Amino acid sequence: MRFPHLRQDFAASLVVFLVALPLCVGVAVASGVPAEVGLVTGIVGGLVVGMLPGSSLQVSGPAAGLTVLVFEAVQSYGLAMLGVLVLVTGLLQLAMGALRLGRWFRAISVSVVEGMLAGIGLVLIAGQLYSAAGMEAPASGIDKITGLPGALVEAAGSGEALWSLAIGAGTVAVMVLWNKLPARWRAVPGALAAVVLATLVTLLLDPPVAKVEVQGLLGSIQPPGLDAFGELANPGVIGTVLAFTLIASAESLFSAAAVDRLHDGPRTEYDKELMAQGAGNTVSGMLGALPMTAVIVRSSANVAAGARTKASRVLHGVWLLLFAALLPSALALIPLPALAGILVHAGWKLIPLRSIAKLWREHRGEALILVVTAVSIVAVNMFEGVLIGLALSVVKTAWDASHVRLDVTDEGTGPITAHLSGNATFLRLPKILDSLEALPQDRPVELDLSGLHHLDHACRTALENWAERHSRSEVGPVKMTV
Length: 482
Description:
Elements: H1 6-30, H2 35-47, E1 60-61, H3 67-77, H4 79-98, H5 110-132, H6 141-146, H7 148-156, H8 159-178, H9 183-186, H10 190-205, H11 217-220, H12 235-260, H13 270-286, E2 293-294, H14 296-304, H15 311-326, H16 336-350, H17 353-362, H18 364-379, H19 382-401, E3 404-409, E4 416-424, H20 429-437, E5 445-455, H21 457-471, E6 479-481
Parallel strand pairs: 4-5, 5-6
Antiparallel strand pairs: 1-2, 3-4
Helix pairs in contact: 1-2, 1-10, 1-14, 1-15, 1-16, 2-13, 2-15, 3-4, 4-12, 4-13, 5-16, 5-18, 5-19, 8-10, 8-16, 12-13, 12-14, 17-18, 18-19, 20-21
């Protein structure tokens, strides 16, 4: 039998489709692009990435983690440029996978990745709170957050804003409470149930709230023109492409590692998975759609629904295509504050509160990296915030690796023996010199370096200079053993 698990995969594909549908639309609207563009990305994630080797059960599509960055890119460079950004991102991922660099993304500090997602979550929540009230959000992350009190005061005096906020808040409440219902109810994804209920409320009560604008599937596909590629000489565009590549690749491969822990099937081949994501982003860019990543929400739903092979994720792409082709007018019934509520909930789930508390108890340095990365993303921007986090991670690793120990043996008579062991780097140089300079000046010293695994140039030079200074005393030269 060619498809021995078709029944399980068919059922799982319907569940994933129902999870993916509101998220695809919500991410697209929050990214500042037509709703159908999100569906196009989800379709490509199913039909293209779903067919390729790498990770058999994780599902790809537009992700909340890239929403903030995509919105900034569209505002800065225009919708016509989005396809170029995504296309080049895909080509870079293909190249990195071919060069077998996929496994190296596993070496990125988990604290940096979680800090990145936390920063994205904070900005996403703040921005979508404005959308939930029917207001335009400020441009920068810090302005989004600091402007919230004033926006709340303004919304309190507007009937339309209060209606909009009520629908958004109701959507979040439904999603939070849905998981507390009996299992038979939870067979319907909470996000879909929340959107359907919000849509029914707006149809029955007809409140003054904005709804999704529909322009049709074919009308939303806008392949990038040749003139748009000339913008690749812009340093800002290059930085955006690198940010897309780093974040999409890291999120996909970390998702793959998480999904592998949920099932006993074949393990992820990271280089092939990176190439699969690259192929998906290349096709998505050619269609002028959103960047994609593997999405843990859809992937975990796929595993929980009993999927056994990649057929489930391919079929979910088929269902998205049929919906976009046959029922696009249904999108026009969805109130925008309901989608904002879905993204607020998604943003909250990006903030790893439990991880922060655990790290603070066990590894405060890692907790600090997580928090600084998140705050930097909010205060500066996505790309520079991630770079700050990576730089801190490298510095911390170098600091941890440069453990050095100085043991001083003084028997009261004869020379004092100072034995250095470990890794002597410039990061520990002040501590080493303070200890050596505290030794008595009127006693001979023997400096034993044989226990060092590594001695960098800065430390060697400093030790030689100290030995030369100490040798000028009346007790004779310092004896160094290497």
